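Human: Respectfully, please carefully check these tokens:
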Amino acid sequence: ISHKFRHPLSLPPNETFILQYEARSQFHFRCTSAFIKLLTADYKPQAFSNSTEHIIEFGPERCWDFNQTRFTVITYQEDPETHQKIKIEHKMKHSHWIPNDEITHLFTLIIRPNNTFEYLIDNRSMRNGTFIDAFDPPIFNMPYIDDPTDVKPEDWDDRILIPDPNAKKPLDWD
């Protein structure tokens, strides 16, 4: 099933985006999915297929022992040599188990302007994180700038644990 909005979605800066829908498995299937895809602006309903370009994929997916929520963000970059568009799938590292029943469930994805996300099932938080550390590969790189002039101090100690020579057991220690 696909539907084209009358107008493309556009978010004002610093606004939270919420994607929410209900799904119910009418039969207890071994392999099924009910995820939703947000498609790109050049989407044509009559040509909809699994290969239709999209930017977000979110929702439950179940097949045998694989039973989790899918959250994938798709980015497209231009190859500097061939100038062709390359699709990159950024998949959430640790998905959460999903209900395996025939009851209607509410799936919610919240994307905040500070580059964090949260997904909920039946208004219960299942996973949250940032677009830097929760996806493989990361959607955004760490905001890190290397300082080529930094050096370790001469008295630097590389031991993981350093005993405290002044530490004493408490008087009531057994």
